[in-house]
Amino acid sequence: MDIAKAMALGGEIVHANKCNFSSYDDLKLRCSVCGEPVRLKKGGTRKPHFAHFPGTDPKQVEECELRASIYSKNAQINSFIENRGQRLEIFQQHFLSMIYVGQEKIVDDVKFNNWIYSIKRDNNQAINNIANDCIEYFLTHQKKMEVYCVYLKDDQPLLQQQIALEAIDYLCVKSSYRLLKYIIYYCIYQLDKQNLTKNNIDSICHRAIKIIMLNPWIKALDNKNIKSSIINLSQLFEPEIVKIKSPSPLQIFLVAIQDGTKGKSTKNINSLTINASQLSSVERDKLKSPLDLNHIFSAIQYGSRGGVKKVIISCKVVTEINTDENTAIQFSFMVNEFIKVDSRIKNASGNYVKAEIEIWHPAIVYSFGYDLTLTVETYSNLLFPKGGYLEEYTNITRRDELASLFRSLLSDGKVKLLKTYEDSKGKVRINYAYDCSVLLLYELLEYCHIRLGFKHEPIEFNTVMQCMINAADKATNSGIPLIDGMLLHSLFTAAKEQLKASKNETLLIDKREIDNTFQINRKKILAKAKRSSYDDKNRPCNVRKNMFNTNW
Question: Is the distance from CB of 54 to CB of 79 less than 8 angstroms?
Answer without folding.
Answer: yes
